[in-house]
Structures are given as C-alpha cells and as structure tokens.
Amino acid sequence: MRARITAAMLAALLALTAAACGDGGGSQGTTPAALVASDLERRAPDAPASDVAAVGAGNNAFAAAAYALLAAQEQGNLVYSPHSIRLALAMTYAGARGETAAQMAEVLRFDLADEALHAAFNALDQELASRNRVEPTRDDGIERKVQLSIANSLWGQQGFTFVPEFLDTLAADYGAGMRLVDYVAATEAARRAINEWVAEQTNDRITDLIPEGVLSEMTRLVLTNAVYLDATWSSIFEKDATYDAPFFRLDGSEVTVPTMHQQSFFRYAAGEGWQAVELPYVGEELAMVLLVPDAGRFPEVEGLLGAGLLDEVVAGLAGVEVNLALPKFEFRFKASVADLLKAMGMPTAFDPGAADFSGMSAEDRLFISDVIHEAFIKVDEEGTEAAAATAVIIDLTSAPIEVMELSVDRPFLFSLYDRTTGQVLFLGRVLDPAS
Fold it and tell me: For residue 238, what pLDDT is reported?
C-alpha cells in the first residue's frame, strides 16, 4: 500500500515541518515503528552516463558555493557533506512545485528534468554502493576496506495523507519507505526514533542530529539521509613514523600535533600559491585530495574554490614520489544551514505563506522550517572515517623520480571524492588540528 508522509529529514537529516491543524498534545508516548511504503520497488539504475555526470557536476558546483558561505560564517575547522545535503533536498524537491521548485533547482544545481534527475540520483547512489570492498588481512593485522553507505528514510505523521506519486518517486529512486510517528502527541519519542536511526546508519558517529525543541506538534514529515565512510589508505602510514611536529596557524602561532610521515608514489600537483596531493583508499576508487596553500596565501586560495580550483587541481594531478608529512585530525561540525540556503537563493521554500509543496500533500500547506546538518571526520595512519547527516524539517504553514616535499604544517583544505564520477562526498578545511 502507499504511505502517508509529512516532515522531511535526511541522514545528513532533512526535516520538514508542516503547519497542520490538530490538537497540541504534550504527552510523550511510545514511538510507533510502523513502516509504510509505495508499492514500487527501487528501480534498477537506468540513467544515461551524461545524466549521472550532470548530477555529479552539479554537486561539485553546489559544494563550492556552499563552502564559500560556510567558511565566511564559521570560524575554525570545517567539514560538511554537500552530497548529503543535496540528496536530502532532492527528496524534498520531489514534492516542490512552482517558484519553490524553481528556486530549489537553481540553488541545488538541478539541471535535468525532474524524472531524469531522480533517475540519475538513483543510478549514482547505486554506483557509489559498488565501491565497498574488503581485502584479505595482511601480516600487520590491519583490515583493509572501503565501507561506504548512503541511506534514506522518511518519518511521517500518522494519519496525514501524502501524494502517492511523491511516495512512488522516493521509493523507486531513493529506496526510502516511511516510518509513521506521532509528532502531535509524542514529539520527543519521534525525535529519539529518528536520531537512533541516524546513529545506527553512521556507526554512532552522529547520535543527536535533531536537538530538543526542533520538532513540534506542527511537524508532519522528516526525510533523513545518512552517509558513512570507513576507508583504509591504499598506502598506510607507519605508526612508528608518527611523531609530534609544529603546525602553524593562520595567525602565526604554533601548536605541536601528532604528525604522520611517509614517502611514497602519489599523484601530486602544484600551482600558483599551492601544492596538492591525492591519497587514494583501498581499491583506488575513492580518494582524499589535500590542497595546501603556501604560507600566507590561505584566504586567497580558499577563495578560488568557487572558481573551479578543485577541478583544476584534480586535472593537474600526476604521479611522483612525495615525502609527505600530514597531521592526524578529528573533529565534527554541526549547524542549521537554513540561512545558507536562503542566502543562496531559495527563500520561498522556508516561507510559510509562499512555499509550495503541494506535490507532497494536498491536505495542508507545508514549508521547510529548518535544515540541520552534521558531519564528522577522523584521519589517522590507517585511513579515514567520516559521517554526515542532514535534516530538513517541514512544518505546516588526485623517468628519474623527483621527490616532491610537502609538509602539511599550515592550514589546508581537503576534498574526499569518488575518482570515477568526480562526486565530492566531503569538503572542508583544517585550521588547527589540535582543536
């Protein structure tokens, strides 16, 4: 049977709160776990390679534009998943109409017709799922693997009617069914259930995506997306080559941090004011690119991301011997990105009086009340662990060998991407690995 849904949340979590009528009960009952879904099974990937490439190019354009705003608003280290945010909003977009849909398409760089867009997201998602692998354990006992999971789920108000075509699209192209909860009478129980799902999908790296007070009795739908990566370097850093070394912050101050070292054959590039190196993971399909501005030129180089610098870096990568020093780091970032999305050009979706999500439900007017995003990254000798979740909340109303030297002892940028599709999964900066 076909499901009903109200608030959208992505495990990079997308929560949509709908301005519905109804009693504002305050009791917190048990969380309903009933799962309803469209009759449709998830379709096999069936999209032209050009459409999948267009979705990837759009993601990277959105990644650079969003990074520029986040970097200007936030201080310190930064990591986020443009793929998670955009995927969550793609599900929401399936229910948008009119000017609301037009603004979302422009900001999110959706350049395909609706049906082709959702089919391309489906094909891309299933291609990324093929990156998973586990290699036989070697004498050092380290498990070499790539674990990449991307999951979507819907959390709708029980008794609220959703448009069947909306649920069909989410089932066929995003593999998302709907879990029924009661935001009206059991708001806190619903919040806990969603957060528990996100925690499970991110290996407990993101445990409290939706804070208390974000959902309310007016919430009708939460669409959730979660992205989790645990990947081993193709060339592991030896732990006995890790030792304390200085890292110079933007203000010139110095901090001592555990720094990994290895000399190996990597793809490397250099340009005006920067150096870059690509560190592939097991299987050589996913990689991290480190973009290291020269001393004193971080703001200048960071500002070029929106002008396509990452594409220039990747295109210029070539294999050389690199003597690399890289600090270990681990941090997380969490914020509402609603204001960012409004500033990028989609305010109508957040306007209770103007938002048009009639493709979701004809029962009441819905609008996005908030979009919450959280991301985590950990880089050490063995590899990288990263997780992200997004929540949209809808309410009613990479010859002789020349050895290149690269010591990452100053603020740097990083991009974690899929080498085949070019899809940027995580993007960020490290200003202080000790913080």
Answer: 93
